[in-house]
């Protein structure tokens, strides 16, 4: 399925990162992971883009979703598919 590019800033041990991965996998969505525990310079990039210091931080296209809670809320409200399919406006 074609969709907006998804980027997730994460760490390998964060349980919320694991939950976000599972949700995206269940949706059949591919994503790019930016492991801030392995690429420490990416932590500053994540904080600049999101204004947050916790992981995961998920972006769909140019839109900042937030962490797992916000990603899951989009799914529960039935809005995640629309965000994934959005043309980026």
UniProtKB/TrEMBL annotation:
Q: According to the lineage, what is the superkingdom?
A: Bacteria
Keyword list (alphabetical) reads: Cytoplasm, Disulfide bond, Electron transport, Redox-active center, Transport
Give start and end of each GST N-terminal domain: 4-89
Q: Which InterPro entries match?
A: GLR_AS, Glutaredoxin, Glutaredoxin_subgr, Glutathione_S-Trfase_N, GRX_bact, Thioredoxin-like_sf
The record ties this protein, via CDD domains, to: GRX_GRXb_1_3_like (cd03418)
One MF term in the entry's GO annotations: glutathione disulfide oxidoreductase activity
Q: Which residues form a coiled coil?
A: none
Its cellular-component GO annotations read:
cytoplasm
Task: Kindly list the biological process annotations in GO that this record carries.
Answer: cell redox homeostasis; cellular response to oxidative stress
SUPFAM superfamilies per record: Thioredoxin-like
Question: Is the Disulfide bond keyword given for this protein?
Answer: yes
Functionally, this protein is described as follows: Has a glutathione-disulfide oxidoreductase activity in the presence of NADPH and glutathione reductase. Reduces low molecular weight disulfides and proteins.
Family as reported in the entry's similarity comment: Belongs to the glutaredoxin family.
Q: What is this protein called?
A: Glutaredoxin
Organism of derivation: Wenzhouxiangella limi
Q: Which gene encodes it?
A: grxC
């Amino acid at each position: 399925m074609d969709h907006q590019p998804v980027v997730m800033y994460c760490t390998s041990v964060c349980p919320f990162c694991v939950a976000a991965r599972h949700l995206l996998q269940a949706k059949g969505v591919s994503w790019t992971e930016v492991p801030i525990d392995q690429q420490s310079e990416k932590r500053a990039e994540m904080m600049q883009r999101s204004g947050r210091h916790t992981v995961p931080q998920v972006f769909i296209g140019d839109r900042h979703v937030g962490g797992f809670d916000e990603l899951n809320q989009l799914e529960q409200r039935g809005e995640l598919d629309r965000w994934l399919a959005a043309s980026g406006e």
